Amino acid sequence: MLALVNTAEAITPRTPDDEAWDAFHSRDKARRSLYLMGVKTTGIYCRPGCPARMPKRENVRFFATAEEARAEGFRACKRCKPDDGRTVHADAIARVCRAIDEAEESPRLEELAAIANLSPFHFHRVFKAETGVTPAAYAAAVKDRRAKQALEGGASVTEAVYDAGYGAASRFYAKSKARFGMAPARWKNRGAGEHIRVAVAPCALGHVLVAVTDKGVCALELGDDPAAMLDWFRERFSAAETVVDDAGLGGTVSAIVELIEHPRTASADLPLDVRGTAFQQQVWDALRRIPPGETWTYGQLAEHLGHPKAARAVGAACGQNRVAVLIPCHRVVGSNGSLTGFAYGVERKRELLKREKG
To answer: Is this prediction's pTM over 0.85?
Structure first.
């Protein structure tokens, strides 16, 4: 049995500004409606997900509303357009999300509905339409984020469990591998105890890096410089036992290269080891059901998932995909058909789609 510890002494409490900075630093578009950041050196204010260069933290201020930012002399960013896309319920849902973020334990549905001044039934529908997930799923994601931050900050697993707001350790461990992709203790220690085999091979798109745990493929990256690709992976999992295994992964890599180069005739039904929130998993599952040769817009994908107003959240989930091609986020395009939103470049996306269409 895990012993309960005094987490107030073990972990430095996070402030609302810490949460806001985390949303901007991770470029989390799913939290776009929650925060505004003013950059003192440029005089502009942005929302999470802005593609502009990330400023130093000492040069930023956070605001609750655009009116507050403008009153202090800041102007709206022309890149992320922070005042666009606001709906009649956006501010109410933003208040609810902040309440969930700041609560020690997840508030009940009725309490959240009261904050939004809506009936519980109507609130549940509005919240899902605005954020792409249910209130319960959002609250679960908040707990997971707190736990990961605590682990990465040096807390023990026990401390992280209770700091995140889990009433019992058993609730945390019940689905921890499904959420983290590996045991939470290994996440904390940058993959410590995890055995990951890696291989890099040439392909029609440059080079492909394939990383595999005992559960399946955990990373698939495209690039031009094999050494730089390996360096990036080793840095992310610096404490894991990473082994370059070109021979042992030969069959897996060959299947992936064949899928890249001849997608109309090849198949690579490989087990995956991917981690993500409930909403991200929904998006990734839907991506795998888009047939080769077809493209969907972010809006169509959101509609397919039953979240027609969550196109931005869908785009953010696509951006968190770490197994390119196997989870084919390249089959999603902009509303006007433009080839946007692919981490490995528009030209690679165009070439993948060209090969799939034949």
So the answer is: no
